[in-house]
Amino acid sequence: MPVNLQAPNPADLFPVPGVKLGIAMAGVRKANRRDLTVITVSEGSQVAGVFTTNRFCAAPVQLCQKHLAANVGTRALVINTGNANAGTGEDGLVRAFSTCVALGRHLELAPEQVLPFSTGVIMEPLPHDRIAAGLPAALDDLKEGNWAVAAEAIMTTDTLPKAASKRITLGGKTVTITGISKGAGMIRPNMATMLGFLATDAALAPGLVQSLVTDAANRSFNRITIDGDTSTNDSFVIVATGQAGNTPITSFDSGDGAVLKAAVIDVAEKLAQAIVRDGEGATKFIAVQVDGGRTEDECRQVAYAIAHSPLVKTAFFASDPNLGRILAAVGYAGITDLDQTKIDLHLDDVSVAVDGGRNPAYREEDGARVMKQAEITVRVNLKRGGASSTVWTCDLSYEYVKINADYRS
Amino acid sequence: MPVNLQAPNPADLFPVPGVKLGIAMAGVRKANRRDLTVITVSEGSQVAGVFTTNRFCAAPVQLCQKHLAANVGTRALVINTGNANAGTGEDGLVRAFSTCVALGRHLELAPEQVLPFSTGVIMEPLPHDRIAAGLPAALDDLKEGNWAVAAEAIMTTDTLPKAASKRITLGGKTVTITGISKGAGMIRPNMATMLGFLATDAALAPGLVQSLVTDAANRSFNRITIDGDTSTNDSFVIVATGQAGNTPITSFDSGDGAVLKAAVIDVAEKLAQAIVRDGEGATKFIAVQVDGGRTEDECRQVAYAIAHSPLVKTAFFASDPNLGRILAAVGYAGITDLDQTKIDLHLDDVSVAVDGGRNPAYREEDGARVMKQAEITVRVNLKRGGASSTVWTCDLSYEYVKINADYRS
């Protein structure tokens, strides 16, 4: 049961001029399932991505990085579900590349102009022949209005499609930002989530899209966790087609650039949070905010320790204010000179612990009231500096175990 | 359901001359439960411990360290369940110390000669008055043959008591080693487990017991994980009463010293593994062995990444050879220059992956056969050096979630 998440209304997803999406059934793992998506982007688009830091990164992730580095102008993306093409060695690279060759042939592109993405089971050979056979149907289906269908086609254990869209005005021109994402387990992105695609028609000066995708990932996908497992296939890509007609952005620090960046982060954050709201077995959406650290990094480290603790997560599932478990996680987060006698803990507006001990005014019924909510903010103050960081996570339920014990069967 | 673990037979637990144990019901959290244990050790005993690295370490852990540092000769240990006295601030220290004062008064000892231990719920005030009121009954019960009862009295969510015992001969003298441990959740010890006590009557040269407890912990309790949560109360203590009459050991590198150390590690390893076998919700006992690393540390880091992955653990629970999840965990273990094209993976005797890809000879039914076993060894070879490390863990089941969602209610 996703937490406060609805399937997107197709009418709310604004097309992005220059971007078309086509979906087909290729039978990658199961028949009669939309499992193949092709996205084409107009000539001159800027494309950049951030990818998993997992050293077992999948073959398509390796090819994406190689093709982007070749700098020959990305013109198409091809995404399959049902098979991650990870842990597949040299053979996996050959199969992923052959998909790029096949799509390139249809579109009269070099294989390096195609970026491949895969998601699904690890360590099984990619059925690249079935994917190639499915391409014509996907190409026949290409249209600008297909964002909602694509959001559904990239799902694996997701229970709902995830998409977000926004329009802003830059120098009198309407600029659109639309994105989709997928992921529900093996989520502790470390560059990006399983798969996230965001497109805008904003015009950017050359080279600027890379810093935009990095910053947006750091403010969105790099702040979520479901089970602490960093995937082999995490990829987040931004496409900027430049068709909006705005004066090209030259910096994100002020003016139109700052407005665009804020809007992109807003959409990326919605996409990232949607993944947590639809986390495997999730019944609660939890924001963990750590303040008063010396650096943002140490705040994030403490926030992740809390967000990854199975004991904290099961307590949230049970709505049990067994909040000492949060203090324990703060304690083992790895800050070796942390002073426990300074730590404050809030649950929403309820002060639970002050200076490392239970707040004498804290009443269990106040904790219990907040724990029953579907959305909860945990606030920890380390009182040793001025930095802050927030991460988003969900609880750990029977359903998580069930989903992951049954996933392949 | 513990995995291949039985309650110890009291007759198999050899008394250690110089060590007496007394148990009582103090009503710490619930009535009619043995929740208070006193252990006295004879004058001249050497005592040393290793304790949690959690910065939110409990009040009794802080006092243990202080009292050991005072070097006034430990003569008694007092252990309560039902309350961890952690996250309790200054007031927690006062309450823990008052327990040492109370026991010291009965035994005519300075409070610093008493080591306090607590385990149970975090962030609730310790009912030190009820503990003090229970001391006379525990003292009346003191006897050398009480190890099995004490093993039961220190349990919390454990389903079975944990104890091990061994006799060796040093220079013609019989030397006994007997220990008990407890713990089933919040287990990723980082110095020691929730609670482990081991005693021997071996005579040691002054100061030698500290290196023994450190080495034994590193070979036992520091190699297990259930849920990755490092407890606030982890403590492992070794007592050496010196009553065996052997020539005092002066080094553990050879001769009698090496024999003793091996026997102590053997008992400590059994106690540590018993904790995993009785891990919350455990249905399988899994050894994760990583070979071919550059250092033992990096091997342990990879082994822990596998052992902590909820996806790996749920796959074991389901007996599903979804073994790509293990490769993914190897990939995100944090070794930044790891070469995925070198990694081999075995499940017991079955070669699953070679050089980072699926072994063409691997058949799913072979993986499935091993996955059904109650005891499984995962072997990863990094092929980049000569170091190895093994850690022990269990699977993640519905029952884990149930136990931790219900723990306080």
UniProtKB/TrEMBL annotation, chains A, B:
Main location: cytoplasm
Annotated site residue numbers, Cleavage: 192-193
Residues reported in the UniProt entry to bind substrate: 156, 182, 193, 280, 404, 409
Function: Catalyzes two activities which are involved in the cyclic version of arginine biosynthesis: the synthesis of N-acetylglutamate from glutamate and acetyl-CoA as the acetyl donor, and of ornithine by transacetylation between N(2)-acetylornithine and glutamate.
InterPro entries referenced in this protein's UniProt entry, alphabetically: Arg_biosynth_ArgJ, ArgJ-like_dom_sf, ArgJ_beta_C
Pathway recorded for this protein: Amino-acid biosynthesis; L-arginine biosynthesis; L-ornithine and N-acetyl-L-glutamate from L-glutamate and N(2)-acetyl-L-ornithine (cyclic): step 1/1; Amino-acid biosynthesis; L-arginine biosynthesis; N(2)-acetyl-L-ornithine from L-glutamate: step 1/4
Pfam families in alphabetical order: ArgJ (PF01960)
Enzyme class: transferase
Gene this chain is encoded by: argJ
Site entry (Involved in the stabilization of negative charge on the oxyanion by the formation of the oxyanion hole), positions: 119-120
Subcellular location: Cytoplasm
UniProt organism field: Piscinibacter gummiphilus
Keywords: Acyltransferase, Amino-acid biosynthesis, Arginine biosynthesis, Autocatalytic cleavage, Cytoplasm, Multifunctional enzyme, Transferase
Reactions mediated catalytically: L-glutamate + acetyl-CoA = N-acetyl-L-glutamate + CoA + H(+); N(2)-acetyl-L-ornithine + L-glutamate = N-acetyl-L-glutamate + L-ornithine
Family per record: Belongs to the ArgJ family.
N-terminal signal peptide: none
BP term (GO), one: ornithine biosynthetic process
Quaternary organization: Heterotetramer of two alpha and two beta chains.
GO molecular function ontology, one term from the record: L-glutamate N-acetyltransferase activity, acting on acetyl-L-ornithine as donor
Keyword Aminoacyl-tRNA synthetase: no
Annotated protein name in UniProt: Arginine biosynthesis bifunctional protein ArgJ
Superkingdom of the organism of origin: Bacteria
Residues the record marks as active site: 193 (nucleophile)
Record-level GO cellular component terms: cytoplasm
EC number(s) on file: 2.3.1.35, 2.3.1.1
